[in-house]
Amino acid sequence: MKNTKMTIMALAAAFMLASCGETKKEEATEEAGMPMQNEMHQEETGEHDMSMVGNLDDGQSGDIEFSNDAVGSAYQHYMHVKTALVNTNAEEAQSGGKMLVEALGKVENSTKATEAAEKIANSTEINEQRTAFLDLSAGMEEILSGAIASGELYKQYCPMAFDGKGGSWLSASKEIRNPYYGDKMLKCGSVRDTIK
Fold first, then answer.
1. Positive or negative, the Cα torsion across 179, 180, 186, 191?
2. Interval 142-154: pLDDT, tens
3. pTM of the full predicted structure?
């Protein structure tokens, strides 16, 4: 019976690691036994050294043209926020959020996206910003769908974000750069849809 439980636990752990296409070495710390999704709720210590990591996002805004300049501007600021979250840079996400709020003021039917962007702009906590980014991504998808004159966007999805509920975001690149986990699970996710 004990061996059966151990086998089931080992298979479950292997499935979780395989679902994101990454394998990580387990660290011998107290947190090693905690489920990965709990990292979304951990306090940001401010000790994340970006100089050692560099820019984790490819930063690609893609060869996308929009039928409306205001929508194009909002998209560029959305990508700014996404890149900041991938790099776990709350200050830069806040800055991008402020610029996005201003850009969305010129876009029709942008209430949902604007409310989420305001939450990012008014927060210095990376986990609060990442939670608001989920709503921002849904709002931006509504704005950007049907506004693309040429090129395409990819709707990407991480099944482990938000305690296993999952979360989506938009990207101009098929490469996964997870804004919900940053360097902890950088490539966790998959392309779910293409928006043209």
1. negative
2. 999 999 999 999 9
3. 0.73
